[in-house]
Design a protein that fits this description.
This protein is an alpha/beta fold. It contains nine helices and seven strands; from the N terminus they run βαβαβαβαβαβααβαα.
Length: 249
C-alpha cells in the first residue's frame, strides 16, 4: 500500500491503522476533527508520512474535496481507503433523542458510504485498490438500547455486500470489518460487561492481515464472532424476549 486514506484517525482503531500503514512506508492521509490529536499522531510517526486531514466527515463536500486532494497527491488514485470514523452512543427507544439518532446515522452510514463512494471511481478506472468499511459485530442483531448503532452498522454491512457483488469483474477489493469489543475511547465509557474485550494491537493485527489478503470480510475475536452468528440465527420470537431482559443502559 503506497497511499492510504483513513477516517477516524485521531484515536483508537483509525489511529492504530494509520501508524501501521505509515510504518510500512505508505503515505497515510489521516482524517478526523481533532487537529491536535492528528498533529500528535503525525509527530509520533517520526519520519513516516502521516498527513493530517482535519475535517468533520458530516461535511460531505469537505470530505470529498479531501479525498480528491489526497488522490492528486498520490498520483491519481488511492491504494486503500478505510471508512472507520464512527460514534457509538445509546439510543434506548424509551428515551430516544432524534438528534443523537441523526448524528449516528450521519457519521456511521452517510459519511462512511460517501468516503468509499468518492474513492471508488478512480480505483475502478485504474482497476486496482481496496475500499474497507469498519462495521461491527453489532450489525447482526438489534441489541437493547442500541437501535441506531446496530442499524448503522447493519446498513454498512449490506452496502458493502452490494458493492462487492458489483466489483466482482474488477480487481478492486471491498472488505468489511466486524470487530467485537476493542479497548478504545469508544468502549472506555461503557459500564456494561464487554465479553472478550481485545487489546488495540491485537485488533490492528487482525484488521491489517485481513486487509492485506483482500478478504471479503474480517470478523474477530472468534468466540464473539461465533456467538453473534448464533444469536443472528435465532428467530425474532425467541431473540426479542431474551434481549428484552438485558438492561445495558
Ligand atoms: N472499539 C470497539 O469495540 C469497536 C467495535 C466494533 C466496531 N467499532 C468501530 O470502529 C470504528 C472506530 O472506533 P474506535 O473504537 O476506534 O472509536 P474511537 O476511539 O472513539 O475513534 C473514533 C474516531 O472517529 C472519529 N470521528 C467521530 N466523529 C467524527 C466526525 N464527525 N468527523 C470526523 N471524524 C469523526 C474520531 O475523531 P474526532 O473525534 O477527532 O473527530 C475518532 O478518530 C468505529 O466505526 C466503530 O463503530 C469499534
Amino acid at each position: 500500500m503506497r497511499s492510504v486514506f483513513i477516517t477516524g484517525a485521531s484515536s483508537g482503531l483509525g489511529r492504530g491503522l494509520s501508524l501501521h500503514y505509515a510504518k510500512q512506508g505508505a503515505t497515510v492521509f489521516a482524517a478526523a476533527r481533532r487537529k491536535d490529536e492528528l498533529s500528535k499522531l503525525s509527530a509520533e510517526a517520526q519520519g513516516f508520512a502521516i498527513v493530517p486531514v482535519p475535517l468533520d466527515v458530516q461535511d460531505s463536500e469537505a470530505l470529498v474535496r479531501a479525498i480528491r486532494r489526497a488522490e492528486e497527491e498520490a498520483g491519481g488514485a488511492l491504494d486503500l481507503v478505510i471508512a472507520n470514523a464512527g460514534i457509538g452512543q445509546p439510543t434506548p427507544a424509551r428515551k430516544m433523542e432524534w438528534q443523537m439518532v441523526k448524528r449516528i446515522m450521519d457519521v456511521n452510514v452517510t459519511a462512511a458510504c460517501v468516503t468509499l463512494a468518492a474513492a471508488l471511481p478512480k480505483m475502478i478506472e485504474r482497476n486496482s485498490g481496496q475500499v474497507v468499511a469498519v462495521s461491527s459485530l453489532a450489525a447482526f442483531r438489534g441489541m437493547p438500547g442500541n437501535a441506531s448503532y446496530c442499524a448503522s452498522k447493519a446498513a454498512l454491512h449490506i452496502w458493502m455486500e452490494s458493492v462487492r457483488v458489483d466489483l466482482r469483474a474488477t480487481k478492486v477489493r471491498a472488505t468489511t470489518i466486524y470487530p467485537g469489543f476493542v479497548k478504545t475511547e469508544m468502549t472506555a465509557k461503557n459500564k456494561f460487561p464487554m465479553p472478550f474485550l481485545m487489546e488495540l494491537d491485537a485488533a490492528i493485527k487482525a484488521m491489517s492481515r485481513g486487509i492485506a489478503r483482500g478478504a471479503r470480510i474480517v470478523s474477530f475475536p472468534l468466540p464473539m464472532s461465533a456467538a453473534t452468528r448464533m444469536l443472528g440465527a435465532l428467530p425474532g420470537g425467541l431473540y426479542e424476549p431474551l434481549a428484552g431482559k438485558v438492561r445495558m443502559f
